[in-house]
Amino acid sequence: RMQEEGGDKKPQSVVDKIAGKGIWQFGVGKEASEALAAVGWADGDEVVKDDGQVPEGKVADLPRFEREDIEGLVAKAVAAETFADERSKKMFTADSREQLVKELVRREVREDLGVELEDLLNPIKVVSLETKILAAEAELAGGGLAPEREAELRGEIGECMAKLSVEKKAVMQDWLKTIFRAQAIISILVGGYMANTPDVPIYARALGFWTIWLFTIPSLRAVKPLGYPSIGMTAQMEKKALNLAFVLTPLLTLLLPAFTKDTAIIFWADVVTVMLCYGGYFLKGDDGDEGGVEIKGVLRYLDYGTGRERGARK
Q1: Is the peptide bond before 201 cis (omega within 30 degrees of 0)?
Q2: Which of 186, 189, 195 lies closest to 219 in space, CA to CA?
Q3: What DSSP assignment string belongs to 18-57?
Q4: φ and ψ at residue 233, rounded to 5 degrees
Q5: Residue 222 dihedral angles phi and psi, to the nearest 5°
Q6: Max Cα distance, the chain (Å)
Q7: Which of 45, 56, 283, 309 is 20 to 30 A from 8 in CA distance terms?
Q8: CB atoms < 10 A from the CB of 55, how many?
Q9: Using CA atoms, how far apart are residues 43 and 9, in angstroms rounded to an integer?
Q10: 303, 253 contact by CB (below 8 A)
Q11: 104 SS3 class
Q12: Cα–chain-centroid distance for residue 302?
C-alpha cells in the first residue's frame, strides 16, 4: 500500500514501542486506522477540532456506528487506497473490519455489562468471534452461494453466536485476580529461595532465576483489568511495564551468565528490572497510548498473561 507519512506527532522511543506494542508487533493496524479516519471514523487517540487540529492529550468519543455500517465504512476505506496486490488488499480489509468490530464490541460490553472490553477474560476471542460473524454475514448477503456453502455459513454463525454469549459474560472476579497476584508473589519467593540457596542443585538454582519470566510476569499480566487505581497506576501503565519486563528479563537472564555464575545475582537483577519497569512507567504516567500486544512464535505458549491460553487461538 502506498501512503505518505506526515504530521507533527512526536516519535516514540524504541523502549516505548516495545512496551506499547510488544517487540514482535510494531504499528499493526495503523494504516487501517488512518484510512478509516479519512472516511469518517476517527481513532480514539485523535480528536479533530473545528480548525482541524488535534488537542494534545485529549480523547473524544468515537463517532457512533452500528453493526450494519461496518461493511460500508470498510468498503469506503478500501476504495480510497491503492494496493500492490490482492493479498495486501485482503489483509487491509480484514484489519479495517477488525478495528471497527473491536470498537463496536467495546461499546456493547460497556453498555450491557458496565465493564471495559479489556476486563473480559478473553477480549481477543470476543473480537475474533464478532469478526467471523460479520464476515460470514457479508458473504451470505452477497448471494450466489451453493446450498452447501450457505448452510455451512449459517452453522458457523450460530456456533460463533453461542460462544459469544458465553465469552461476553466472562469477567474476571476479584478472587481470581487475588489468585493470580498471589501466584506471582509465591513464584518470587520460591524462585528466590532456589536461586539463593547454595545447597540446591544447579538446575534448580537456574530455574529459580527463570521463574520471574516464566511465572511472575505472566501471572501479573493475567489479571484483568490491570492497574492499581488506589496509588494512581492505570491499567495502561502496568501493561506497558509488564510488556517491557517480559522482553528485558529473558535477555538479561541469558546475558548475565557470561559475566557471573552467581544465580542469586541473576535472580535479583531480574527482580530489580521488573521494579524499574514499574517505577519508570509510574513516574512517566499514562500518555493515553493503548498499544496492542501480539507475541508470536513459540513465545506465545509461555505468555499466558494475555488470555490466549484460554482459547483465543485455535
Answers
A1: no
A2: 186
A3: HHHH-TT-SSTTHHHHHHHHHTT---TT----TTS---TT
A4: -95, 115
A5: -75, -15
A6: 73
A7: 283
A8: 11
A9: 14
A10: no
A11: helix
A12: 15
Residue 171 forms beta bridges with which residues?
Answer: 120
Prediction pTM value = 0.57
- Under DSSP, the state recorded for 9 is P
- Three-state SS for 233? strand
- Other Cβ atoms less than 10 A from the Cβ of 288: the count is 12
The owner of cell 512526536 is 10
- For 120, which DSSP code? B
User: Is residue 292 a contact partner of residue 44, using CB atoms and an 8 Å limit?
Assistant: no
Cell of 231: 496509588
Q: Is 276 exposed, middle or buried (0-12, 13-18, 19+ CB in 10 A)?
A: middle
Give pLDDT tens digits along the chain (314 positions).
Answer: 334 444 444 555 555 554 554 443 333 355 556 666 665 554 444 434 444 444 443 334 456 777 788 888 888 888 888 888 888 888 888 888 888 888 888 888 888 877 777 778 788 888 888 888 888 888 888 888 888 988 999 999 999 999 988 888 888 778 888 899 999 999 999 999 999 998 889 999 999 999 999 999 999 988 877 778 778 888 788 888 888 899 999 999 999 999 998 999 999 999 999 999 999 888 887 665 554 334 444 444 445 444 443 333 33
Which residue has 532465576 as its cell numbers? 209
Alpha-carbon span 50 to 236, nearest angstrom:
30
Amino acid letter at 282?
Answer: F
The Cα 212–Cα 186 span in angstroms is: 11
Are residues 252 and 184 in contact, defined by beta-carbon separation less than 8 angstroms? no
